[in-house]
Design goal:
Geranylgeranyl_Rdtase_fam; Geranylgeranyl reductase family protein; eight-stranded mixed sheet; FAD/NAD(P)-binding domain; 3 domains; binds flavin-adenine dinucleotide; Geranylgeranyl_reductase; single chain; alpha/beta; GGR_cat; D-Amino Acid Oxidase, Chain A, domain 2
Length: 381
């Protein structure tokens, strides 16, 4: 049986990031991936600058288009534009992006085993044994980076799923030249293209990634909303369309991120941003943090678990908690949303852009202030 210091299950941005930093710290690391790379991942592929600027290598070869300007719409009435010197959002196709991240980790010595699905987690005294479709593997530490449907979490002892999962659709749409020319000029978000959620149109090299996400609750009509959104965008001719649906975890687990030497990161832990559903940057960041915790702890497993938990509680978690409250307020009532956008639309867009840029954290006192101001505003509507 092959033995490693760390086995990372999943080769998405969280797993690839963890593997990269573990190998850099000198640990013998393997990535186990059930698919063959490069593989398609349902995702808008909008990579915000707070993630990009912290990448340990250049990713420009896999960036389709980058936007220094973002357009936020709410119906026909509101349109806010923010602009920055650096790309606010870099658009990637996830097959190429994830593959590059894995290749960079392989250059540092990470072993990749593809077509290798982990099917069972067995806890031994000093190691964790993983049964896979390619035989058994043992490791001192296991990182579950297997995404939103994390079977690893279930197999490792998280019997209840305490995250909130929301449905999202992603259509890869090839349109005629006139529509592509018109719609590829901007990266747009359409708040209220869907009740309690938003739509997006992200231009890629030769097609548009168009999607919708319901942020705070499930809605069976999501496919209808997406069809309406495509109409709303004024697309006259669809040359080809690939329709995909998946889920996004928009609240983190409340029962810990480490059990029996299995560490959860990325979507498996529930680290996507609750307000925007943007998950790539925290996936990559949590991969870096878990690698740091494990590398610093050596064989001291309790220390690794405590360090990782502490570091998540002091970095990612406060951001997610504020964002959760904002999401509830923002998507919970159309009246509140309208009041926010009418009175503070440009300011709200600027603050969100600063957060995307990694220049600001979510303002800690924002809830109290917003509630006060909104009360006044709603009374006057
Ligand atoms: C429709 C939609 C649009 C989105 N758009 C954006 C966006 O524009 N920007 C953004 O930042 N975020 C977006 N997200 C969120 C983003 O896709 C996720 O947050 C991100 O992919 C999480 O990365 P991850 O590494 O945790 O998991 P994933 O990227 O899901 O990777 C998990 C990997 O684990 C593998 N795996 C699973 N089970 C096993 C197993 N048992 N054994 C071995 N391997 C296994 C999978 O094959 C996969 O490769 C979107 C999500 C959806 C659904």
């Amino acid at each position: 049986m092959s033995t490693f210091d760390v086995a990372v299950v999943g080769s998405g941005p969280s797993g690839a990031s963890a593997a990269f930093h573990l190998a850099k710290a000198g640990l013998k690391t393997v990535i186990l991936e059930k698919e063959t790379l490069p593989r398609y991942k349902v995702c808008g592929g909008g990579f915000v600058y707070r993630g990009r600027k912290n990448m340990p290598f250049d990713i420009s070869e896999v960036v389709d288009i980058e936007f220094n300007k973002v357009d936020i719409y709410m119906g026909d009435k509101f349109h806010f534009v923010t602009e920055r010197e650096n790309p606010i959002i870099s658009l990637v196709m996830r097959d190429a992006f994830d593959n590059l991240m894995v290749k960079k980790s392989q250059e540092l010595g990470v072993e990749l085993i593809e077509d290798c699905k982990v099917t069972k987690v067995v806890n031994k005294k000093d190691v964790v044994e993983l049964e896979t479709t390619k035989g058994a593997i043992s490791a001192t530490y296991v990182i579950a980076a297997d995404g939103v449907y994390s079977q690893m979490a279930k197999m490792a002892g998280w019997t209840n799923d305490t995250r909130t999962l929301i449905p999202a659709l992603e259509y890869e749409v090839e349109v005629n030249d006139a529509d592509f020319k018109r719609l590829s000029k901007e990266i747009r978000f359409d708040i209220d293209a869907i009740p309690a959620g938003y739509g997006w149109c992200f231009p890629k090299k030769n097609h548009l990634s168009i999607g919708v996400g319901v942020i705070i609750k499930d809605d069976k009509k999501i496919k209808e909303y997406c069809a309406e959104y495509i109409k709303f965008l004024g697309i006259e001719e669809i040359i080809s369309i690939e329709k995909h649906g998946y889920q996004i975890p928009v609240t983190p687990r409340t029962d810990g991120y480490v059990k029996n030497n299995v560490f959860l990161i990325g979507d498996a832990a529930g680290f996507a941003d609750p307000l925007t559903a943007e998950g790539i940057s925290n996936a990559i960041y949590s991969g870096k943090l878990v690698a740091k915790a494990i590398a610093e702890a050596g064989d001291d497993k309790e220390k690794a678990a405590k360090t990782y938990t502490d570091i998540i509680e002091s970095t990612i978690m406060p951001e997610l908690l504020t964002s959760m409250k904002l999401a509830k307020l923002f998507y919970g009532s159309k009246l509140v949303r309208k009041a926010i956008m009418k009175k503070y639309g440009q300011r709200f867009s600027e603050v969100m852009t600063d957060i995307f840029m990694g220049e600001k954290l979510y303002p800690k006192d924002i809830m109290g202030k917003l509630k006060e101001k909104l009360k006044e505003k709603i009374i006057s509507i």
